[in-house]
Amino acid sequence: GENVEQHPSTLSVQEGDSAVIKCTYSDSASNYFPWYKQELGKRPQLIIDIRSNVGEKKDQRIAVTLNKTAKHFSLHITETQPEDSAVYFCASRPAGGADGLTFGKGTHLIIQP
Amino acid sequence: IAGITQAPTSQILAAGRRMTLRCTQDMRHNAMYWYRQDLGLGLRLIHYSNTAGTTGKGEVPDGYSVSRANTDDFPLTLASAVPSQTSVYFCASSESGGQTEAFFGQGTRLTVV
């Protein structure tokens, strides 16, 4: 089955700097790659997703890039703010998607004031 | 407000007892999922259902069962709870099993003692 690796497990950046979280996946048939943000004690919520027919997608300060050849995708957050502090999960779903998303183990992003 | 609701929000359960976690969605989504979240392990899929009347096993199905009698409800049953099933359980739903967003419930914190 699909395997998703996520790095780093913890990332600390100064407020205003950029943060990058990277994921790799194993199933070349995967075609959907969402990113979820989870604040302490809350449910995961989708912040951005990308489908395999595009290489990059942006939404204000957040962007995701996808390299299908290398089977990796990354989350980029620019101009980080204190409210960006949370745990971020990448995920993938193979084409057909019958059995749900496979998640990475998460990155704890800490924004230092 | 449309969404996905889980019950109970938390529970302490004696080992060996039977327990059903409830999940209801009012978005008329076809696909529903159960995940467990453990520190350092991310979200792991227990069982899924692509449509009413069908279910499938995820990554960690042992000790759990599900049913999908209708579109809205997807209960998760622990037949005989064990301490290793102590976890936070999230139910999720998506419009279909393809490239669509998964919406999560608020979670159930289960402690088996």
Question: Can you walk through the features of this model?
Answer:
The complex is a heterodimer of chains A (113) and B (113). Helices cover 0% and strands 58% of the residues of chain A. Chain A has no helices and 11 strands. The N and C termini of chain A lie far apart (41 Å). With 113 residues, chain B is an all-beta fold. Chain B is globular. Chain B has no helices and 11 strands. The interface between A and B is medium-sized, with 26 and 27 residues.
Using brief descriptors, characterize the structure shown:
heterodimer, A: 113 residues, mainly beta, 6-stranded mixed β-sheet, 5-stranded antiparallel β-sheet, 0% helix, globular, B: 113 residues, 7-stranded mixed β-sheet, 4-stranded antiparallel β-sheet, 49% strand
- What is the straight-line distance between the termini of chain B? 35 Å
Largest sheet of chain A: 6 strands, mixed
Rg from alpha-carbon coordinates of chain A: 14 Å
- How large is the share of residues in beta strands of chain B? over 45%
Low-confidence stretches of chain A: none
Quote the average pLDDT of chain B.
Answer: 94
* Total of helices of chain A: 0
User: What is the element string of chain B, with H for helices and E for strands?
Assistant: EEEEEEEEEEE
Describe the sheet with the most strands of chain B. 7 strands, mixed
Order of helix and strand elements from N to C terminus of chain A = EEEEEEEEEEE
Roughly how much helix do the residues of chain A carry, as a percent range?
Answer: under 10%
Shape field of chain B: globular
- In terms of structural class, how would the helical and strand content of chain A be classed? mainly beta
Summed up, the helix count of chain B is 0
